[in-house]
Amino acid sequence: MNTKMQIDLDLDSSNLEGVDKHMLDENVELTHSYCKELLSKAESYWANPHRIYTEMYEFAHGKQWDPGIEEQRRRAHRDCKVYPIVGGFVRPLVNAVRQAPPSISVYPVSADSDKSAARVLAGVIRHIEYTSNAQRAYTHALEQVAEGGLGAWRVTPKTRKVKQTQYVTVPMETPYGVQMVPSKQVAIVDKIEIAIEQIDDPTTVMFDPAAKLPDFSDANWVLYKNTLSELDYKRDYPEGKASATDSSVVVYEYWYFNSKGTVDFVVFDEFDILVHDELDLLVLPFVVIAGDKVEIDGELTFASLTGEIKAPQQEINWLKSEAIATVSQAPKSGWIADKDAIDAADEDAWANSATDPDVILRKKKGSEVIPIVPPGPPTGYMDLSSQNVEMARQITGIYPDPSTQQALSNASGKAIAYQQAGSQIQTYHFVDALNYGIKRTGEILLDMISVYYNDDDIRISMGVDNTFQHVSIGPTQVPNVQNVDLTYSNFGVVISSGPTYSTEKEKFSEQLMTFGKGNPQMLPLIADVVVRYSNIPNSEEIADRFRAMLPPQVQQLIAQQSNSNDPEDVIRTQQQQIQQMQQQLQIQTQHLQQMADELEKANTGNEIKVLDIQTKRDIADDKIKADFAKQEAQHDQEKRLLEIEGQIKPLLNALDANNKGQLQNLQSLNRVSEKIEGLSPV
C-alpha cells in the first residue's frame, strides 16, 4: 500500500535528527547474531526494572513474607498469615478509570483535512477499541502499573476470514442470446482487521534504552518476547528449528526503523531469523506505560503503588500473625477446685470444657470450683496494625468508600468530596501514564488505518452513543456511504478523560429538567430533548411526538440541522438551542427588570411629591397656627392694655384734679404774696 496518511506526532527537528542517527544503516547486514546481541543488551538494560516488577507483582498477589523469615517461623510453629491490603488500594484507582475511561478524539491538522473526516476516523478507532475489548487492555495495564510499575499492550493487524458480498458478471441465456449479466455472490475472503491486544506480562516488551520520553515514543526499536504453542509455531513458521519446552516455543519480534524511516518487522528464535518484512508503518506498534522513573547508581526502577505501601503491609502481616500465635499458644480456660470436688468420671469433661461447646460439668455438692480466665489478645498488636493501615491510607490518599465512611464517621459531604479529590490527586500520576499510553495508541491506530484501511473497503464508524454507520476509506468515492480519503490528510490525536457518554446524557437531561422547572414557559420548547436523553422506555418515540408539537420556526431550524447524524453534533446543536433560549430569557428578564426599575423610580418620584406637598401643608398649618397664636397674643396684649388704661385713667383724672387744685392754691398764694409786698414800706 503506497498511499500514506501523515500523522501529527509532535516531533521537533532535533528529535527527528536523533532518530535518523539511530536508524539501521543500509550497509548493516541484519543477521541472527546481530539480533541476539541486541536482545542481550535489551535484557541487561531492563533486568532491574523487570526484577522489581516481578517482586512487586508477586507481593501484591500474596507472596509477602521473606522466605528466610517464613521458614524460621514455620519451624517455631508460628503462623505466617497474609492480610492483603494492596488490592484495596489498587482497585479504587483502577475502577475509577473503568467508570470514566479516557477516550481518543481526532482533530484535523492539514488544510486537506476536515472535522467530518476526523469524526469518522474517531468512530473507526472507537469501533476497533470496541471489537478488541481495548478498555480491558487499558485498565489491565493500569492495574499492572499500580501493582508492579509497568504495563503494556500492543496494536497489531490481523488477517481474518470474513464473508463478503461480491458482484460478478456471469453468462446467462436470454431471448437475445447469451449475455453477461451481474450476479450477487457471497465469498469468504481474507480481510485485515486492526486489533488492540492485552499483554499479560509487561516484562516481555523491551524498548530501545535510548528512549527518554515517558511513553517511549522516541524509541528506535522494540523487542517483544512472544511465547507460542508448539502447534502455532509449526503453523506460522514451518521452517523453524526451535524445540518446544512444556509444549511452547519462544520467538522474538524485532520492530525497528530502517534507513527510509519506515518500520521493518523481524521474527527470530534461538536458531535463525524466521521473518523479515518491510512495512509502511511510521510508528512502532507497542505501548508501555510506567510509573515514575527512578534511576539511582545506574539502576533503573519504576515506582508502583505496591512499593509505596509495602512496609506497612509487611508490618500488618507480622503483627496480626504474632497476635494470633500469642493467643493460640496461651493457656486455655482452667479451674481451681477442692480436692475430691470432681469425680474421676467427670475429669475429662472439665479438662475439655474450653473446646467442647456441649459439655456438662458436674461437681460434688458443697465443693467449690473457681474458673481461671485466660489472658485476652494483645491490644498493642491490634493498635499497631490499625496504625499501619492508616499510614498506607495517608501514603496513597485512598480511603474506604465515602458512603461507608460517612455512615461510620458522620463526615460531611464537603469533607468527603475533598477526600475524593485528594485521592485522585495523589494517584493521578498513574492515570496520567495511562493517558500518555492511550494517546500513543491513537497515533498507532491512525498510522495503521492509513496503511491497512485506505483501500476503498466498507468499514464501520462507531458513535459515542454506540450507534454505527458504514463509511468508505480510500481515494474512490463509494456510493451511499460517507467517504474519507487519507492519502493527503493530516490528523492529530487528543485524549479526553471524564464521564462516559451515558453519564453525560443523563446529566444533560437532568440539567434540562432543572432549567425547565425554573422556566416553565420554556419547557414545551425543550420537552422533546428532555425525553430523548432520558432513560424512559421508548424515549425516542415519545420525543418524536413532542417534536411534532413544536412551533414551526423551531421545526424549521431542526430541519436545517438534520443533515448531521453525529450525536456529538446533535448534543452541541441542542445545547446551542438551550443557550439561545437562555439568552432570550435573559433579555426578557432584563427588560422586565428595567420596567420594574422604571416603575419603582416613578413610584419613588410620586412619593417625593406627596412628601413635598405634605411638608408644605404641614408648614402652612404651622404658619397658620403661629399667626393665630400671634394674633391671640396681640389681642390679649391689647386687652390688657385697655384694662390698664381703664385703671390708670381715673388715677390720672384724680391727679389732674389734684394738680389743678394745687395750681389754684399756688396762684392764690402768689396773689397774696403780691399784696403783702405792696403793703410793705420802701
Task: Explain what this protein looks like in three dimensions.
The protein is flat and about 195 Å long. Helix 9 packs antiparallel against helix 11. It has a five-stranded antiparallel sheet. A three-stranded mixed sheet has the order 1-18-2. It has a three-stranded antiparallel sheet with strand order 4-3-10. Helix content is 52%, strand content 19%. With 682 residues, the chain is of the alpha+beta class.
Report low-confidence residues grouped into runs of 5 or more: 1-22, 402-422
The average pLDDT is: 78
Rounded to an integer in angstroms, the radius of gyration calculated over CA atoms is 51 Å
Tally of strands = 18
Main β sheet profile: 5 strands, antiparallel
